[in-house]
TrEMBL record:
Organism the protein comes from: Methylococcus geothermalis
Alphabetical list of InterPro entries matching this protein: RdRp_reductase_class-2, RNR_lg_C, RNR_lsu_N, RNR_NrdJ/NrdZ
Keyword Cell inner membrane in record: no
One GO-annotated biological process of the protein: DNA biosynthetic process
Descriptive protein name: Vitamin B12-dependent ribonucleotide reductase
Catalysed reaction, written as an equation: a 2'-deoxyribonucleoside 5'-diphosphate + [thioredoxin]-disulfide + H2O = a ribonucleoside 5'-diphosphate + [thioredoxin]-dithiol
Family: Belongs to the ribonucleoside diphosphate reductase class-2 family.
């Protein structure tokens, strides 16, 4: 078959270097680079090239960087230790900020990093050197999170991170809940390290001690913390099932944390005699010691299926074993050919020579063999393939040891006594005893997202079944336009090429056709033959019952697995996956490509899901207190009321004005600001009020300012109004602690973008209200987002109108720059019924020839703005979003909006199409809206 166009595009975009235009040219470069460490490169170069052409796919870092001359690592991921000190080494672990610098250097060179933060003392623990209290590991994780967000990886947008905390750590509850709030630790995957003792306590419903070597504070000791006989401090004891239920509920709600059965990882570690595993790489398929690395590659199983889709279909085991043996040699050479970000990483790798050879395309290969993925026959076939891979890889490594020497930390007796090696065939064990072995570990099954798409015709990912047979991928082009590519699964494509339009055989099943337990059973079938681990994501639908889900991890432990991750579509997930920084929006540049030109933003924020929340006005049964203030202004006297609720503090939630002489338009601004006060972002309210406090007009005056009535000159009525609100909110403590700022982070531009001297086009409309004498033009300035979408970003008025409306326009312009149009839609809908005494008038309904009565000029302005958003396919004519980006959450406002069309699963922001639809699929990023794949593999 001819290559798929999307495969060629991805290959050229991500892997081709120095003018390469085909997979064959990339193979030639990689083969030459990996043959260079050999004594006879000319002998091995053609053999390596043959293996690449036969289905061996080294990991993405190798394919993109080998032989290019870049000082970038060929290693996908590392584990970095973190100690319990700010800067000093403690118990062999570097201080926190030393570890941060090491991680930054590693990510800068292209490697992802996993960490165990369990050594860091708990929140509140005593710090003797400064007689202060510790802030706990989660607080330091936020520092690592921001660093990862800032450091650009070689050949990638940003490095991947795995954060791990042991189940015994006193801060484990905070760790599990760390991602409950949208926007928190978005550059981390999280997993809990679970011990055998903890799992047994879960089974028996026992108590669980939360302990740490660090001394608790005197206050914590007064609350019951005490020293245990082994020298560890027990901070408190909890029911094991309480922690377990929190882990399961959190995983069900937003797909994290995953679990690592850490004692099993250590018990089954080939090098248990000389190292301790505390963490894994970011996708979990490589349990690694401090400074350990994962040197990965995969064999495309679809290339070894003879006579697919026929009764005579068979797996070519001998040829598979031959290619596997050459692949082992190639990955071993990667350890000598790569650039090492840190010297300690190089030392660790050379001492043990870990590699991770695995396979990809299992789901497709099973379909080609006529085996349904969730059948016992398919699991037997997969186990047989894994067993053949194990034996071929270990035999090849023994042969390499005879030629090049065993790995330096090899000790025959303890190595052969380890559980995995004890399970090898006796003839192979005898050869290891005699000759040693070149590599301490040889096997790992990793996610293969883009390398599968680029080099395997989109064969199913790693150990997974296919996610979908066909879909359309919308890819953003360099000029900002979008282009659609059809994408087909390899097995589906091959079947259609041979069978035409005949129905798919029963063996064709996708990930969501399979039960969660059957996903896990495939993992259990293959894991016994893999010495490291396997990256597998159990995908379940959004409506999967929690009653079935809650036992999944327990069953995984009973089945002998080393760990597990799950994905259920939900409103929170995706923050760790390709979430771009929410700050640093680039300066817009003028687009002169055509006469219909608008400002163009080159970068927009990617806030977390459901980060923008509306709260309906509270209605306490006993009423609520309000602060009132009388304002005497040349335009009239009126009162300002700012209401608050008292619930664990005083929380302002609304502002309104009253009085027959109140200036026209001020009540509309008050209504809009009340919605800001009820959002979940005090930083947003503070920034908006500070902006309005600078508003200039022709109605400036001396405002007697509380609490003593001293006169303060304000540049406009709007500025004075905003200043009073700010004063009262500050008095109530609203701005004392500004933590999460989800609305501010969602701004596509913090300040209003300015045009160049050539100007920009705006949408304008005339408004005439004879009843009030309003006669003006309303203009919506527009720009173009990176995905080509037009967006209003500012509203202006010109003509005869109440100047207070300038303040409303300034506030709404702020709202327009929130990336999710649902935000401005909600604001405008709240103004549609805004009444004004004797201000109602008859006007044309936008987009029709009919007329209707509008309750005020403000209401008609809101209707016109909604109409423009509808013209741009951003909102419907009622102000509801046409596409749910997943950022808005309406609390207690009725059922969710139902939208027609194909289902798009909520997730992180897609850099290709801009939709919030990136989910974790098979260990990789996948956009359910446009089909874009993330950079794993």
């Amino acid at each position: 078959m001819d290559p798929q166009q999307i495969s060629l595009e991805v290959l050229l975009e991500k892997y081709a270097k120095h003018g390469e235009t085909s997979a064959e040219e990339i193979f030639a470069r990689v083969a030459e680079a990996l043959a260079a460490p050999e004594k006879s490169p000319d002998t091995w170069r053609p053999r390596f090239l043959s293996a690449l052409k036969s289905g061996f796919i080294p990991a993405g870092r190798i394919m993109s960087a080998a032989g290019t001359g870049m000082q970038a690592t060929l290693i996908n991921c590392f584990v970095q230790p973190v100690g319990d000190s700010v800067s000093e080494e403690v118990d062999g672990r570097p201080g926190i900020y030393t570890a941060l610098a090491e991680a930054a250097e590693t990510m800068r060179r292209g490697g992802g990093v996993g960490y165990d933060f369990s050594a860091i003392r708990p929140k509140g623990a005593r710090v003797h050197t400064t007689e202060s209290r510790a802030s706990g590991p989660v607080s330091y994780m936020r520092v690592f999170d921001r660093s990862c967000e800032t450091v650009e990886s070689a050949g990638a947008r940003r490095g991947a991170q795995m954060g791990i905390l042991h189940c015994e750590h006193p801060d484990i509850f905070e760790f599990v809940r760390a991602k409950d709030r949208p926007g928190e630790l978005t550059n981390f995957n999280l997993s809990v390290a679970l011990s055998e003792r903890f799992m047994q306590a879960v089974e028996t419903d026992g108590l669980w001690d939360l302990t740490h070597p660090a001394e608790p504070s005197p206050e914590q000791q007064c609350e019951g913390a005490h020293l245990r006989e082994d020298g560890r401090w027990i901070y408190r004891s909890v029911p094991a099932r309480e922690l377990w239920d929190l882990i399961m509920r959190s995983t069900y709600d937003h797909a994290e944390p995953g679990v690592l059965f850490i004692d099993r990882m250590n018990r089954e570690n080939n090098l248990g005699y000389c190292e301790r595993i505390e963490a894994t790489n970011p996708c979990g398929e490589q349990p690694l010691p401090a400074y350990g690395c994962c040197c990965l590659g995969s064999l495309d199983l679809t290339r070894f299926v003879a006579r697919p889709f026929t009764p005579d279909a068979a797996f070519e085991a001998e040829r598979f074993a031959e290619v596997a043996a050459i692949a082992v040699r190639m990955l071993d050479n990667v350890l000598d050919a790569t650039y090492w970000p840190l010297e300690r990483q190089r030392e660790e790798a050379k001492a043990k020579r870990r590699i991770g050879l695995g396979f990809t395309g299992l789901g497709d290969a099973l379909a080609m063999l006529g085996l349904r993925y969730d059948s016992a026959e398919a699991r037997d076939m997969a186990a047989g393939i894994a067993r053949r891979l194990r034996d071929a890889a270990y035999l090849a490594s023994v042969d390499l040891a005879r030629e090049k020497g065993a790995f330096p930390r090899f000790e025959a007796a303890p190595y052969l006594a380890s559980p995995f090696i004890a399970g090898l065939p006796e003839p192979l064990r005898a050869r290891i005893r005699k000759s040693g072995i070149r590599n301490s570990h040889l096997l790992s099954i990793a996610p293969t997202g883009t390398i599968s798409l680029a080099f395997a015709d989109n064969a199913s990912n790693g150990i997974e079944p296919p996610y979908a047979w066909t879909y359309l991928r919308k890819k953003r082009e360099p000029d900002g336009s979008t282009r659609e590519y059809p994408v087909e699964d390899h097995a589906y494509r091959l079947y259609r090429a041979t069978a035409g339009d005949r129905p798919l055989p029963p063996a064709f099943v996708t990930a969501l056709d399979i039960s969660a337990l059957d996903h896990m059973r495939m993992l259990a079938a293959v894991q016994p033959y893999i010495d490291s681990s396997i990256s597998k994501t159990v995908n379940v639908p959004a409506d999967y019952p929690y009653a079935d889900f809650q036992h999944l991890y327990l069953e995984a432990w009973k089945a002998g697995l080393k760990g597990l991750a799950t994905y259920r579509p939900n409103p929170v997930t995706g923050a760790v996956l390709e979430a771009a920084p929410a700050t640093g929006v680039s300066r817009p540049e003028f687009d002169e490509s055509d006469p219909d030109r608008r400002l163009r933003l080159e970068e927009v924020p990617t806030p977390p899901l459901a980060s923008l929340r509306w709260r309906r006005r509270p209605r306490p049964a006993g009423g609520n207190p309000a602060w009132s203030y009388l304002i005497d202004h040349p335009l009239g006297s009126f009162a300002v009321f700012i209401g608050h609720v008292e619930d664990h503090g005083s929380h302002p939630f609304e502002v309104w004005v009253n009085g027959a002489e109140q200036p026209r338009g001020l009540a509309a601004l008050a209504k809009s600001l009340s919605m800001d006060m009820r959002s979940n972002d005090r930083g947003w309210l503070k920034a908006k009020l500070e902006s309005l406090m600078k508003a200039h007009g022709d109605d400036g005056f001396d405002l007697p300012f509380p609490p003593d009535g001293r006169p303060v000159r304000v540049p406009s009525l709007v500025a004075g109004f905003a200043r009073l609100i700010y004063y009262r909110c500050a008095e109530l403590g609203a701005f004392e602690t500004l933590t999460d700022t989800p609305v501010l982070d969602a701004l596509m531009s913090p300040k209003e973008p300015k045009t160049g001297p050539d100007g920009t086009l705006s949408w304008t409309v005339d408004i005439l209200n004879v009843a009030t004498g309003d006669d003006f033009i309303m203009a919506l300035k527009e720009l173009v987002l990176p995905n080509g979408q037009r967006r209003p970003y500012s509203i202006w008025l010109s003509g005869d109108y109440p100047r207070v409306l300038d303040g409303l326009c300034k506030s709404l312009s702020f709202d327009m720059r929130v990336i999710d149009p649902a935000w401005i839609g909600a604001k405008l809908r709240q103004l549609l019924d805004f009444p004004e005494p004797r201000g109602d008038f008859l006007a044309r309904i936008p987009g029709t020839g009919r007329q209707r009565n509008y309750p005020s000029t403000v209401a008609y302005m809101a209707q016109l703005a909604i109409h423009r958003y509808a013209m741009l396919s951003l909102l419907d004519e009622e102000g509801q979003p046409l596409e749910d980006m997943g950022l808005m959450a309406y609390e207690n406002l009725g059922p969710a909006i139902e939208r027609p069309g194909k289902p798009v699963i909520k997730g992180a922001r897609c850099p290709e199409c801009g939709n919030d639809a990136v989910i974790r699929r098979d260990g990789c990023d996948f956009c359910t809206a446009c089909g874009a794949l993330g950079g794993c593999g």
